Fold:
Amino acid sequence: MLVAEEEISFNRDIRPILSDRCFKCHGPDAENQKSDFRLDTEKHAHADLGGYFGIVPGNLEKSEVHHLIHTDDEDEVMPPKDSNLSLSAHEKKLLDSWIKQGAKFEKHWSLKPLPQNVPVPEKISDWSRNEIDRFVEAGFVKHDVKAADEISPEKWLRRVSFDLTGLPPTTEEISAYLADTSPEASEKVVNRLLDSTQYAERMTSEWLDVARYSDSYGYQRDRERFVWPWRDWVIKAFRENMPYDQFATLQIAGDLLPDATTETILPTAFNRLHGHEMEGGIVLEEYRMEYIADRAQTFSSAFLGLTMECCRCHDHKYDPLPTRDYYSLGAFFANIEESGLISYFTDATPTPAMPISTPEADAEMTAAEPQIAAGEAKLTALRNAPETRMVFENWLGKRPSLDWPGLVADLSFDVIEDGKLLNSVAPNSPATTPPANTLVPGKNGQAIHFTGDDPLILPKVGHFSREHPYSASFWARPHAITARENFFSRSHGGDDAASIGYEFLLLDGKPTASVIHFWPGNAIRVQAKQALKPGEWQHLAMSYDGSSKAAGLSIYLNGEPLELEIIVDHLTGQTTEWTMDMKDIVLGERYRDRGFINGEMDDFRFFDRRIVDAEARQLFDQTYLADLLAKNAAELSESDRGELYDYFLATAYDPYRLAAGELAAARKRWNDAMDPLPSITIMRELPEPKPSFVLTRGAYDSHGEPVTADTPTALPPFPTDQPNNRLGLARWLTQPDHPLTARVTVNRYWQMIFGNGIVSTPEDFGSQGSLPTHPELLDWLARDFVEHDWDLHHLLGQMVLSSTYRQSTVTDAATREMDPENAFLCRGNNRRLTGEMIRDNALAVSGLLVDKIGGPPVKPYELAVSFEPQVPDKGDGLYRRSLYTLWKRNAPAPMLVTFDAPKRDVCSLRRATTTSPLQSLVTLNGPQFIEASRVLAAKLMRTHGGDHEALIKEAFLILTSREIQAEEATILNGLHATQLADFSANPEQAASLLETGEAPVPSDLPLAELATNTVLINTMMNFDESLNQR
Amino acid sequence: MKNPLCTGFENPVGVSRRSFLNSFGMGLGGIALGSMMNKAGASNVSLGGQQMFPNFAPKAKRVIYLFQSGAPSQMDLFDHKPRLNAEHGQELPESVRDGQRLTGMSTNQASFPLAGSPFKFKQHGESGATLSELLPYTAGVADELCFIKTMYTEAINHGPGVTMMQTGSQFPGRPTIGAWGSYGLGSLNENLPSYVVLVTKEGGGQPITSRYWDSGFLPGKHDGVLFTPSKDAVLYLNSPEGISKGSRREVIDALQKLHEIQLAKTSDPALETQIAQYEMAYRMQSSVPDVTDFSDESESTLKLYGDDVRTPGTYAYNCLMARRLAEKGVRHIQLFHRDWDAHAGLPKAIQGQCKLTDQPSAALVKDLKMRGLLEDTLVIWGGEFGRTNYCQGKMTKDDFGRDHHPRCFTQWMAGGGVKPGYTHGSTDEYGYSIEKDPVHVHDFHATLQHLLGVDHEKLTFKYQGRHFRLTDVHGKVVKQILA
Structure:
């Protein structure tokens, strides 16, 4: 094709060769250079290598490259023999010509800014309907090819209906279009299609592959998850024709918008649609890194068309993408409270998560909130009321004795009998321990020595939901200071229960108290700034006020309140429901967590209320409060009175305790409204970015240099006037001159409409990807798209209204041979309908399709034979469009997968179309298709009575959108005759065929006829033209 | 055209099919079927690139991989460690553990008591392979087997572990071994898929997922095809009730006539494929029931596999099915059997597992041998990692559990060019670390592909700008185990 004199284009002719054959060793990867010679930039390629040169522009003889690619010496030749790479004679010639012409380098085409203006070629002939055609026709002239024939109007209508809505045209729509002789007839059709919910569903269906959407968590357990509200948001966005830049921005960073609402936060679920691991025992950080990587890779594939995964372990070998860029991009997606392991023992949604409320729940919470405020105000008012003071003075005057109301457990650890330890306030409910925990001399009498692996169980107390206050106190002697030790908890366990419940731990020796729905994002936790000492007895107490706020947690050491750091302060979920019967407080051990290993504990007490400071001190020194109470009222200092007043309110003043009960009830009302609400995984940015690092060779625990959030260096710089977070990233992405965003997007939609992208590797716009067949057209479309405010209706409309789109797939052998991949766009591409379209088509033509929009996923027949069989729905769920079919990553819908739907483990921008007999089995035998054939047969029999020829004729039109030809009719009429003879002779066979599917079988139609027509229609459904866009 | 390595499926139809057919003088149906069923030498790899597979004469034509999911305990079956019995109940020396990461399930344990195997070990056959009393049938074929005692992996949990064994990566998304084989070598038959999966029915323990036979980024037709022990062994295999074989033939004939009209009008090669596709579907409707119908098996063969063989979906049934599929030219037969994950109650659980699997596994080797199929069929038996030498959870007098252990485990291979009656590598006396001749998962994969005549560095697929292969950027053929 290329004549020797033609000017060499670096990007078109040379870069693909260098990238593929040379860059692996002489490319941009700084680490893996096999030699000092680099070919990735002009400067490197022309450099003086010590008296000799790789390339001397214009001088073949002095250029080592020229000699090494031509040499016969097996040890010298480039690429080396053992690389399995080689250059063709043509390629060597190209390289030589390039060197002769000056060996100029160019920036890779897709990294150049999007041009401001792209001139549209002159119109050459009347073939051109719009600008797209003028670009394409210019190519025809250049390559001396001709456009294929124009398809018939009804075939265009079929093509455009499937492409824009995923559904076939009805026969009425066909007639109407054929009858419309106005010049705008086609435009009217396109507008009708674009302005439909079916269009939004079709566009959503495609976006689900990009977003790696699934209704389950993936990995090994693959439990179902609640993410369909995100899918419904996407449908709504397409239905409203939301500008694409906004569509992208909301999904990347809707939570960070200044006026963020639940409506703008919901789209960010996009980032969290990756798999979540639920297999107990994994290393959490390894998977957290994997999720961050998935988010960053999905972002870069979907929006930038860049294959960032290559630079996870090393600098990209082909594109100017260093490893550092990969982790800098990842840093945008790292700053959320998430866990690498999600909860096996609870059904909590992994955090960050957002509840999806109902009007009823909203009303209930709105009603509860003033009650909570009123409850809190009432406590303050009571505390400040002169009347309360009077009652207090009166109480003081009576010399009250020390009392411990609310003490529900008191363990002295002095005696173990048969594994039982006395709870002196509930002698009938002793605590229990395995024999491995033993008694040793303690702080007061005996203490218990914990192994760390053996639980001491305290039954029946502390079964509190999160509005309920509680307190605990004990002596502890840690054996050593370690990363993590459990004093006590009421919980199913650690990581694989998301630490649900409440717990009191030592983390690096620091006392830490938490109440948790899902660690780390839905919890409250405070931590002492000070660590305990190993080997010494120290007294600890903690209390919680039932507020679900971190400020409601206190910790005391040796009677003094500790200065605390708030680690997390976001608790909105229940803390008491898990799947197994582990309902009691456990001391010294915890399921799948580190116990209080070789620690000792004495005098454990538990209260069903919040203790006050004076009580904590009393519990430590056994005298403080008792002494105060024993004093004459007149001897008390102001601060003594203050301490006693708190004690009085907490333990002796009924109105105050009643008010506290009312407050708890109001909190419970709010909690009860919130708890049943399902939550969806979303993004919620942390105030401080999490530390991010280059991970050496991609290993999660191998930290290299620290990185901060930044965009890839080969692309435009991050704008200085934008916040350095995902919102800034989205603004950077959608700037009008961005080299990639619009190009990648219009290319993906071109692929959706034409079957192949202008760049045939939509996921890879780098140097290993394909070059655009029509670069100017791509740039023009991209610029035009941006200038029309990223309007998808406009973009798709001009594609389907072009003459390029109207070309037949039929061509002559010579053209096929010359242009096997249709790079010149001089015909239509053969395209099989997607699996979704094939199924939706059967439902639509039969009238079974239930056109309900959105909602929970459904289970059609095929899920009964998926790898994890499910009971199919009854009624509507069998007949919804395929984008609503429940998608389980580990057992995806088998019919859709047979027709090449990706498994959705990763972002996928292109479906390979394969051909397999397994597909034919689905459409010949699958109950969805047999049932649809039967229902359509019955419908047509009512129209045509016994006139089977008319029936076949109409069915053929319905299924192919064209009139049947005589020879085709002969074949099908012949089939009708033999089938009818069979079924008439074997009526029981007819009856059993008709039993397929839930739809009722009409009792008034002749069975043999109905069975025959069912087979006829199923045959036509399997006809090439009904499954393919030819 | 850019095509340095076997970049695979760029577009096999790209080369004019008609001129291809003419110049190679092949029949129409033949090539269409070939491209669809990916017949060796007729499709993607040879057309799309310059490489041809196999690269050299294969020793194995097909693979039967008996995957033992959940991880069998190597020191209770193969890797005899008397030292563990001598120090039973004593703490695992810190010097042996050497700071290796443990799973989240036992990492918090305060104590790691060593657990000796309660089972007796003996040497068997001329090769003198040491096996536990739990494997009497395997012992009977010991001279056919090649034991690799030094397999190791990085994965410490099931999902990542099985994914690693099947794809060479711990994370989902890459093609499985069988998919690579189907892609690179094509099919050996025209009536059955080239990659078939059989999963033991029921059984508890860690779930098996369809991702374990996924084609990853390879074209979807290289997915493993699951044969289930139900009416339809393959998805929607059977015609609906009421449709006779004759009726179905009439439908296929009508369709073919319609397609031939189209073909005549358009000369579009895609129609040839369409015709072949429906013909093939029709043939599969009888070839699959033929292969799944055991009525032609002799009583002595059934006896060899044990009574379970008569119950569809059992491990024994699947082992016999594997032999039948091998005979019919299925390239890669992947069995999954689960429930080896004995974190607790190991002594009892492992006896049950061996009862289900020992006899059929050995029978398969014997049966293949008797039929002369063993020499070009590679049989592999193994799990995703090993189990710890220390007890997980509470140790009692006659009960204990073992956690996951990636640092060494045993796998055996037989037939297909591996050395029979040979034991490769050794572990330390605690069975904790490898002492000699480690074999990484990537090495195993490289060796497996080598036996199939494939240079593992050459069978690649370009995806997202990178040439991927089963062995990633690693893997060395383990020459010592080659026959």
In short: Chain B touches chain A through 91 residues (CB under 8 Å). Chain B has one domain: 52-230+298-481. The longest strand of chain B covers residues 145-152. Residues 1-35, 37-51 of chain B have pLDDT under 50 and may be disordered.
